[in-house]
Fold this sequence. Notes:
Oligomer: single chain
Helix content: 25-40%
Radius of gyration: 21 Å
Strand order of the largest sheet: 5-4-3-2-1-6-8-7
Amino acid sequence: MSILVVNSGSSSVKFQLVDPASGESVASGLVERIGESDGRVELDHRGESVERIQHIDDHGAGLALAFEMLADAGVELESVTAVGHRVVHGGTVFYRPTIIDDAVVQQISDLSNLAPLHNPPNVLGIEVARKQLPNVPHVAVFDTAFFHSLPDAAATYAIDATVAAEHDIRRYGFHGTSHRYVSEQVAQFLCRDLADIDQIVLHLGNGASASAVAGGKAVDTSMGLTPLEGLVMGTRSGDIDPGVIMHLRRSAGMSVDDIDDLLNRRSGLIGLSGVNDFRQLQQRIDDGDASARLAYDVYIHRLRKYIGAYMIGLGRLDAITFTAGVGENAAAVRADALANLEGFGIEIDAERNALRSKQARVISTDSSTVTVLVVPTDEELAIARAADDLVREGS
């Protein structure tokens, strides 16, 4: 028995068949360059990879081709008991996994004003998958759900309260599925009760976010109304003086869409250095590129500010965990983010930190009073288990 997990973007769809009990990935794949002449579908199944390159009209054609390839590989879709969909923004409406019907699809679509880059393609993926697999339950799992219970002081922006209420303006937080999964994995790894651990989780990928988690509950997070707030990211600016937006509008004559594009797609590492891949960034630093060095320094500076803020906010700190592509693989980022913090009980073991592994591991010294870990995230497994639990509850 397996759960199909679908993550639909504007021009791509990631999918994975997961056994929620064992955590095994039965098959996974990617449909990309939808609408382009060189569309591509890649499927990985039991150690073998196959691909097709052809024009893919739309998301429906892409998923149909993916299902055809799954059948050719001997994967029986009849084994699918539910489909779990990643949905970025649940607003104040959705804060737990939800069985999808037509009304839920409409509500998710209505929330697109809060996530115009993400919710529309999420909805499209849901609609396509429901047509492809109409006889199994479909479940929406929301990125914002883990942060629904943020304390009011952490969730509230200091603007006119009436305006904020009228337009649903508050800090929602994102990457919640990953932050929840990783914080729970930390407790399991350390053989401790989740309720007894105060921790910081650093989800560092092309998109990046930090969270403070006290006893299994999120008490703060770096992303806000949108995924733009917070840490410096691959193409996003993260925190910025709102006055910059007005300045660009008045002095540069930039439209709202121009500024949106600047801050979401042409800022962060790529805006400062021209690249957003940490491997390329490191190579440029090694070659003496001053802009690459500055980009890295700005990235680390912002990251350290959030770590410090969350240490104070929690009051007591048991663990700091790095996850996602950069967090799991960039040893230099981990070392620099926590450098010279021995006075706060944080000591990195250089040898442990340098070790490359896909397994959860401790990278702090034995004498460090704060345990520092690297824990691979698995959002697909988390979504699959959330969908499976909900379907079993209703059966």
